[in-house]
Structure to design on (1494 residues):
């Protein structure tokens, strides 16, 4: 074990997989010589060669397209989209092509592409460096979708994604690359001494489809993913309530059993995410949970989310769910 | 209609009621030299990108530097594949009209393209087609029964009723699944080729895109990535003049499609797409470049879509109905046939016999295929196929929905 | 008034707006000379000129991009994406650009683009001619989203969209272009004699944001849009239950008051759509409705939707919600 | 590192630790003629697309067919704008380092581009920039205080704190809002231009894209649509050698960027991007084409990004730190200054005085701007601006969320 921040953990996952499987290739904009604008592939080109870790033209559509072809022809491409906001030029290749190849070809062809992308706000990125577009991928059969929150799960989920026979989109909360975020922009902790920064140096996986119980309690269930997991931790503390905090980790497929079990216990549920409310993945969670847990629910399922607006620059702290906003929702739900 | 000071909107050269006249090709066989495929730069191919590579002349003889060194046996094989494709298409169109299949797209007038080009390759090479290159499957030995079963979408459809007809997939022949969104395969093919290069295998990938679809971003990605990584890929634009009702002049200005490749530093050729020999030869040339590490070749295949876009289309609404006969490229089957007759390797009688034999084969394949069901009557692939192969394993939410469907079916 | 099928109604909307406002332009693949592969712009180029109604290159991304620029520079572009399945190459231009221009520029620029696109299944289109991707647009602040179901609302919604100062994506259920669809592929009625085929020849609008009560009842509320509205009509009949059938018409913004009012009355709700279940717009409906109507709900909110798989070709009738599948859900919900 | 038989991955010409040496330009002023802008075909510009149009020679004199007919007053105005931009950039970088703003991007070495090109246009023309063309705003008369307020994101930011710094918008100057996704403006600009054509106004649109961003689909859409509809647009690729850490050789093969335009039948020029006069002159030429209904011009602006990509970037990790001094294009400000001195219209003393004056102006603008708040201390635009202008009117769901935010804020 070794203490790693999230960037190091991701780097380690890539390194481990490049070592283990010669079919793994890593590429994207500024990923090769430079090691990525967030440094997640730092040193990997030098170690593994430019034919395995390389720069691409500035073309997300082209990146996804060559990944499709490489995966079809026996490789395990791992590509980076520099910011999740820039994944949309590749959207057609991902949702119409990569996701559907296995099915459309009667199982004759498939492409186990992994697409990594830094997502979410909190770095003063404004409109186009802050979006968290996970829900726009969860509606596409054939894709798996995961969202990391800590160094430990970032590495374990990424290795699972690379080893998966299915295409996986891996969201990484860029705000947490170098430390957890508890909702206070003036308090910038690193991952030092955080239990989830204790990361094995070698190979391990976190199965896709498995949630993580980050905190245990019995009055309310909080479901979240990415940066918001840490903000929820703080919010629970502020609320004074006893809550299960479930870090979803995988969005497709998601761990319904874990959530149903928790909500059956608590009778109350709040979903927290950064993305806008309307048609965010919180909608799917709320809809599914009320379907299953209806008779045991003691209050409506609440969603605490980003507003239905673009992501702002200077006023981002009024946009992202804050510990106090979440805490208030917890109090109201517990008292309902 | 358009005021010239306002938005300029180009029209097609000819519209219904007008007389189509294209003149003759400006280029004859022998007009263009054959550069050394391994030594040539993209600049060395400028004349080839702006001209037209031909081997079969207007007098049906073969000549010029691009005349490939192949014997008539191969040509006869090519002729047979082309005849098979045309008869196959006719049969499928009839089936479509009688409701046995939902939709169809013919290769009429373009039969030479995929057939000659695939024949010029090796069996280990990957073929990444659009709906207009089914002929490659004949070259790779696919059984017609299986092709028809796909088109009908019956229980034996290897696509399992999931895609529309003509969206073939044929892994054994390294013929990659056809996708409806046009253009996507063009850039993907570069990735297939890069994987071959990575594995250091002598494998080349060939792909095609339509004149219309070349306006998609994937065309640009393909040429750029292929150029940067010197991918062993053959990138063909099939310029058949039309994209449904839209003329090719909405996809290019007055420059040729082949010209585009040069701007990416990719050697580029323009070839008579109804000339089996020229197609064969240019593809061999491109393969040699690819397999010797020289990277991609871009080929504009100049042809004419002689039929409707698809069984849903009525071209008489947007072009003169006799336009195809004015096309200077002629009929690729006739041209090859006439050439083979002229050199004494073939005859009208043999051609008739060939057509009759193939007609019989197609008819027999058809009869066998419908035994496994047709669109009107079924049996169809089980609706279980809705849930399989979405993922490598069935996740819980699909399992649950599958169970629900079974319950509704009364299983 | 005049009897029109949906294609004619759409054609009439375009014609009326081309006549009324010289800033309206209509374009797309095969839209000009030919009049569109579904004939929705038939005759319009001849009448209004090729500089107003024209063909474009086969490039959805380019179409959306020039629409952006035209709208910014004072025009009202109305573009067609030939099938909704082919809207994804334009996704970046729509969700990152068109949707956000007004906000990102501090209100200095905006672009009132209308994007029309035929969506949904039932025409044996398989994988890539059947998708109904509306939910993938509802998560984008700045966009409005509407979904027609009849000739009458197709025309009224389209005129509202063209007149809107905001960008609007207009989904048209291609299965209903020439007649309503009641779930039986062997019964192919036309719009003849249907009350909603009675369409004014001139200008009228259906306000964006307004739902339509297609049928009244008191045991259960059915919310649907597009082709499924008609299938639900049949299903309600089959179920024997007395239901409110709400044709949502607008997805963003949606008519919450109408739905809350109905669910408050019935205490039960089912949402029906063709798109896959996970993160379909039904999720947003269910999540929002339970939030508002929790205390009055007598049964879990159900969703009857397409499966979480790609859309099949030969077996499409086992994919799309059928009258009997919906009817069973109604019965179960009413009895719960 | 790469086995040549495996994937070929091009490297940058020089990396840290290596010595950069580019040699001299192959082209001197006078080498290229000036075709008639209204009569010329794309083919007539082949030499211009492959060569390099220059006016200011290595000896600082101006010459050749492309020497524009403008007097020194205009050049002095351009010089002043460039000096202002450079000083402005320095001030902003300092503010960024002290936490007064979150992020910054300089135009260092590229100041001439947007300034000369915008000066060559008319005021009614539309400017559709990337983050690397803020200088156009000076030409259109924008107040620096307002620019700084945007960069700080304070209460006076006309973008209302919604976008990162440098994402200016300036409607009064027809300077269209900058967007972060690279490339999108290039194709949108064609639509802006088509609207001008539709309205039959004498309005031209100018836009730019980076060498890196030219790999996006939008580049292809822009050239294709502009060619087809003969849009009155000037499409510039700013080839400054780098896209963050990625060298331009990953965006083109050995052909020039200007070459690409020819393949779309769009007349194309390649111009020395550090030569104010050549930029002015080529843009005037392109404007004449556009405003006389001749359609688009494609211009490759050859330059060098002398600074870091942005305040978040450290180029010493991927290129020799003295690479910019090896660049043969020199410094655009110095070159114009030396020319003006050489013809007797300017002097080192005047230059010093100019710099001192502008330094004072920038300092004063800065002081005024921070009165309206800075990033560290605020005041910021009200968070109400989160909800306004998402739509033309506030729909109910936003109104409800806005109320919720107000409640949380204790309003
Ligand atoms: C992305 C996308 N947009 C639109 C369509 C609808 N469509 C199918 S074929 C076609 C025309 C294609 O023309 P071309 O590329 O020239 O190929 P051809 O049919 O002539 O072989 C169109 C517009 C599609 N399939 N995919
Ligand atoms: C679609 C998209 N992908 C990635 C990025 C991240 N990014 C911002 S600038 C940049 C490099 C741009 O290089 P170039 O186009 O050459 O312009 P330059 O910065 O040199 O002016 C990248 C990759 C982005 N902004 N948008
Ligand atoms: Mg075509
Ligand atoms: Mg650059």
């Amino acid at each position: 074990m070794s203490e790693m921040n999230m960037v190091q953990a991701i780097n380690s996952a890539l390194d481990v997989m490049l070592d283990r499987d010669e079919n793994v290739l890593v590429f994207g904009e500024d990923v090769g010589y430079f090691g990525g604008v967030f440094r997640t592939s730092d040193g990997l080109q030098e170690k593994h060669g430019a034919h395995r870790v390389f720069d691409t033209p500035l073309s997300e559509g082209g990146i996804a397209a060559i990944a499709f072809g490489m995966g079809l022809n026996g490789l395990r491409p791992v590509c980076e989209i520099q910011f999740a906001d820039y994944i949309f030029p590749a959207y057609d290749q991902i949702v119409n092509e990569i996701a559907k190849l296995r099915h459309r070809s009667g199982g004759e062809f498939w492409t186990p592409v992994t697409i990594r992308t830094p997502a979410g706000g909190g770095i003063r990125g404004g409109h186009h460096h802050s979006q968290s577009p996970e829900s726009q991928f969860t509606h596409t059969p054939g894709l798996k979708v995961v969202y990391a929150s800590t160094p430990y799960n970032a590495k374990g989920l990424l290795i699972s994604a690379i080893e998966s026979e299915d295409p996986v989109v891996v969201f990484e909360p860029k705000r947490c690359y170098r430390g957890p975020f508890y909702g206070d922009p003036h308090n910038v902790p690193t991952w030092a001494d955080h239990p989830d920064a204790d990361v094995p140096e070698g190979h391990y996986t976190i199965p896709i489809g498995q949630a993580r119980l980050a905190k245990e309690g019995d009055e309310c269930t909080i479901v979240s993913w990415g940066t918001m997991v840490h903000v929820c931790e703080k919010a629970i503390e502020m609320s004074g309530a006893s809550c299960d905090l479930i870090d979803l980790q995988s969005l497709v497929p998601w761990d319904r059993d874990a959530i149903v079990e928790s909500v059956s216990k608590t009778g109350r549920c709040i979903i927290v995410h950064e993305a806008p409310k309307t048609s965010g993945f919180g909608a799917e969670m709320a809809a599914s949970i009320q379907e299953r847990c209806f008779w045991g629910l003691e209050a409506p399922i609440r969603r605490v989310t980003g507003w239905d607006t673009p992501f702002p620059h200077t006023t981002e702290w009024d946009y992202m769910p804050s510990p106090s906003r979440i805490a208030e929702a917890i109090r109201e739900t517990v008292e309902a | 209609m358009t005021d010239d000071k306002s938005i300029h909107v180009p029209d097609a050269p000819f519209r219904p009621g007008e007389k189509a006249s294209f003149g003759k090709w400006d280029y004859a066989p022998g007009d263009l030299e054959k550069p050394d495929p391994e030594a040539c730069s993209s600049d060395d191919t400028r004349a080839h990108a702006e001209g037209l590579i031909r081997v079969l002349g207007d007098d049906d003889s073969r000549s010029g530097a691009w005349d490939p060194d192949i014997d008539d046996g191969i040509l006869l094989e090519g002729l047979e594949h082309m005849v098979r494709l045309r008869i196959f298409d006719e049969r499928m169109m009839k089936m479509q009209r009688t409701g046995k299949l939902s939709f169809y797209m013919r290769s009429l007038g373009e039969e030479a393209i995929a057939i000659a080009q695939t024949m010029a390759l090796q069996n280990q090479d990957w073929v990444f087609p659009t709906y207009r290159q089914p002929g490659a499957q004949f070259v790779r030995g696919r059984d017609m029964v299986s092709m028809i079963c796909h088109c009908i979408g019956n229980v034996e459809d290897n696509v399992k009723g999931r895609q529309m007809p003509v969206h073939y997939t044929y892994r054994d022949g390294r013929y990659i699944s056809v996708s409806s969104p046009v253009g996507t395969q063009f850039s993907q093919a570069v990735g297939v080729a890069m994987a071959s290069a990575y594995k250091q295998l002598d494998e080349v990938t060939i792909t095609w895109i339509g004149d219309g679809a070349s306006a998609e971003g994937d065309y640009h990605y393909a040429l750029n990535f292929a150029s940067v990584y010197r991918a062993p890929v053959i990138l063909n634009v099939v310029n058949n003049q039309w994209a449904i009702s839209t003329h090719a002049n909405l996809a290019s200005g007055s420059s040729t499609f082949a010209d585009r490749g040069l701007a990416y530093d990719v050697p580029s050729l323009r070839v008579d797409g109804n000339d089996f020999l020229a197609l064969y030869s240019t593809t061999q040339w491109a393969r040699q470049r690819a397999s010797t590490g020289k990277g991609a070749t871009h080929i504009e295949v100049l042809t004419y879509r002689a039929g409707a876009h698809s069984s849903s289309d009525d071209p008489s609404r947007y072009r003169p109905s006799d336009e195809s006969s004015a096309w200077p490229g002629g009929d690729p089957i006739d041209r090859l046939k006439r050439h083979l007759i002229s050199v004494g390797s073939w005859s009208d009688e043999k051609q008739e016999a060939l057509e009759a034999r193939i007609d019989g084969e197609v008819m027999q394949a058809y009869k066998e295929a419908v035994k496994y069901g047709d669109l009107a009557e079924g049996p169809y692939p089980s609706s279980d196929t809705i849930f399989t192969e979405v993922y490598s394993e069935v996740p819980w939410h699909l399992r649950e929905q599958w169970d629900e469907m079974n319950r509704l079916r009364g299983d």
The first helix of chain C runs from residue 6 to 20. Chain C has two domains: 2-199, 212-335. Chain C has a mean pLDDT of 97.
